[in-house]
Request: fold
Amino acid sequence: MFSKVLIANRGEIALRILRACKEMGIQTVAVHSTADADAMHVRLADESVCIGPAPAKDSYLNIPSIMAACEITGADAVHPGYGFLSENARFSQILAEHNIAFIGPSAHHIDIMGDKIEAKRTAKALGIPVVPGSEGGVTEDAEAKRIAKEIGYPVIIKAASGGGGRGMKVAKNEQEIGVALSTARTEAKAAFGDDAVYIEKYLGKPRHIEIQVLGDGKGRAVHLGERDCSLQRRHQKVWEEACAPTITAEQRDRIGMICANAVAEMKYSGAGTIEFLYEDGEFYFIEMNTRLQVEHPVTERITNVDIVYEQIRIAAGMEMTVKQEEVQFWGHAIEVRINAEDPETFAPSPGTISYYHPAGGVGVRVDSGVYQGYKIPPYYDSLIGKLIVHGRTRPECLQRLNRALDEFVVDGVKTTLPLFRKLIKEPDVIAGNYDIHWLEKYLAK
Reply:
């Protein structure tokens, strides 16, 4: 087992990893920018190192500074959390060259799944169902029109290196394909430095379903069921739940085992999430995230599996403690992301938290790195924390979420708490009757 883990992240996820390490008897190193000197994970870590000024490119994305922190502290492993360098193959490779473990998959698997075109090819070869579309990148209008005609309009053009909704354009007919192609390529180049795009069939009312997997890197893997992440704004998840309201146990077993078998065949190491669009009883692969997900707590609640604990064990070359036949799904869990944003305009709202009272009680978990008097910096993601609730049934879970939202108080900055207090009363949300477009339409009313 590792003696000291450096946590190459910030906020709630850094604190989540720190707690797991402490429970495993592992020393922790917090790295931080000048803007995060008073962060909770910095205060609680065994050691801390300032790695640069506030901008992420000069600190949390600064590989030389993080490597220097490893050298200074003698850390023998790095946990990247999510975001920042968590899916950076070069960072993983550099750590390996310095005999420092990367708590995540190999650089090879990060590379394969980081390129959406190659990821789709790989998924198809492994027997994972994919959305009909181009086999590779598309650059010419004529080629785009031919592919779109074959699979049928509407189609969506996506950045090969992208995510978060950037470099994505929908074409409803042949007249729109040229503009959509050029716009997507321009956006992809600006956002990711790569103008490669591909075309897929655009599904009208799909849900976003993802399967959590763990692989030991030696040919053994398990799945931990699905999460429904369909409530999204601008392709960013807002509300996640497990089990998915519309998925049967038989469907879960079928798609889960397809994913687990694929991960085993790849000899994938660590935690990963295989994401699908789901419509009319069919699953269509969209991407694989080769890291810990923001929404991992809902899976932990219904399976009683500590995903971060398993990540660390796997990276240390130890066996997973979970076997597929032992995985059981109990009850229902929902997570809402509480951001420092205006609940109507979604404009960021950095500032000082003057009063903070997180919800508590039976079945309630709050993953957050803030506290009363904490100053939310304007340089990073606006996530204040995640409210996770668990109940025996989905209706009980919704009731518990309603109660917890009423208890949760964050003063001094605007937050998205009022949005969730409205959503919890919406008939479609109560019934689980929504798709990936529902929230955008709701907010446009």
About this structure: The domain at 4-103 is CATH 3.40.50.20 (Rossmann fold). The mean pLDDT is 95.
